[in-house]
Design brief:
This protein is α+β, with helices and mostly antiparallel strands and about 130 residues long. It has helices spanning about 5-15, 20-30, 60-70, 95-105; strands spanning about 40-45, 50-60, 80-85, 85-90, 110-120, 125-130.
């Protein structure tokens, strides 16, 4: 059961939502499942049971941010390149359409892991992915 679903049912149990309101929310949640992709960051203890830190950013928000960033590309040094998914791309070539295409290609793969980092000293594991 998803966290969102649990939260809605908990709110019904606490009397914060009526069953009818919960039914509408659960219906909307069901419609959105599988459609919304997220940029996710998780920080775990060494046992990797429950994350200590959870960051979930809808891909739509990242797309908006990338379009805003593209508007400021004049301040990026000429010829500066970034490596995205194995491709070197010059930042002065970035357009909102190219950014949308990159995000769509990466996010269509289900769970796309961007980085996994283990900090042995702190017994922590960090996972960054799109899902």
């Amino acid at each position: 059961m998803s966290e969102e679903r649990k939260k809605i049912l908990s709110m019904v149990a606490e009397g914060k939502l009526t069953p009818e309101q919960a039914d509408r929310l659960l219906g909307a949640l069901k419609e959105s499942e599988g459609k919304t992709k997220f940029f996710r960051v998780r920080v775990y203890n060494k046992n990797k049971d429950n994350p200590k830190v959870k960051v979930d950013i809808p891909i739509g928000v990242l797309k908006l941010a990338s379009k805003i960033g593209a508007a400021f590309k004049e301040v990026i040094p000429e010829g500066f390149k970034v490596n995205i998914h194995g491709k070197k791309i010059s930042l002065d070539e970035f357009t909102p359409e190219i950014i949308d295409k990159i995000i769509e290609e990466v996010s269509e793969e289900g769970k796309f892991t961007i980085a996994e980092i283990t900090d042995e000293g702190k017994d922590e594991f960090v996972e960054v992915y799109i899902e």
